[in-house]
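Protocol step 4 of 5: obtain the predicted structure for the target chain.
Materials: sequence only (see below). No template structures provided, no constraints applied. The aim of this step is simply to have a reference model before the mutagenesis design in step 5. Sequence pasted as it appears in the construct record:
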Amino acid sequence: MSFQNPNQREKDPTIYHSALVKRGPRLLAIATTPKTVIRKADQKRFHMVTLVIDEVKYTYFIPNKEIEENLKQHVGKTVVVTATGNDKRGTAKMEIQASMVKGSALIQPAIDVAASKPTQWQTVNTSQLPQKPAGEAIKNPEPKDREAKAFLCQAANLMRLCVKKANDIAVELDLPNEHRQGIASSLFIQADRSGFTFKMPISAYTPEELGWGASKADSLTTPQPEDE
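Step 4 output (structure tokens):
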């Protein structure tokens, strides 16, 4: 059984490997470098690290050296973690997949604009554009935040599709809400990496446009089975 320092318990709740297994694929941040603590009673060593899940810090007791080395490679980053196996049986494993989210952001989901930008786009040197004659009034200038708003609308539509497919999977496999959230995050990250964000429409999808599947499209908050 892992030992937990009473002072640490007051600051951060503990999350064990079994809890991560139950949550399924999960977007989280590895906030600290793994460290070792020694229990005074028997001088037994325990290895721990701080994880940030849904903006809450947890102390995770590392079950084996393999997982510890894997965590060290992603310190300060936000990643998608899939925990498997059993700590007590010595079969605990952890798959860590890098995400596009900065470790300091801790926001789910988030998008790396540079990675999503199509390669065929080129930066334009505005100093070479034709200049308007002095004194000529600029009519109906484009709002400075228009590009940002358009991009966020496209990203929101991509998330709607990912949530819809996560709902379909949750209904088909009867999965808990924690798994549904993890699946939606994982789908969004993969789709954004593949450059689909900029292929999304700006206008919000209607329930009919979200497509077919095992769940209703009129409510993305809670997956509802389609009426037979």
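Step 4 remarks: The CA atoms of residues 40 and 153 lie 55 Å apart. Confidence is low (pLDDT under 50) at residues 103-117.
Proceed to step 5.
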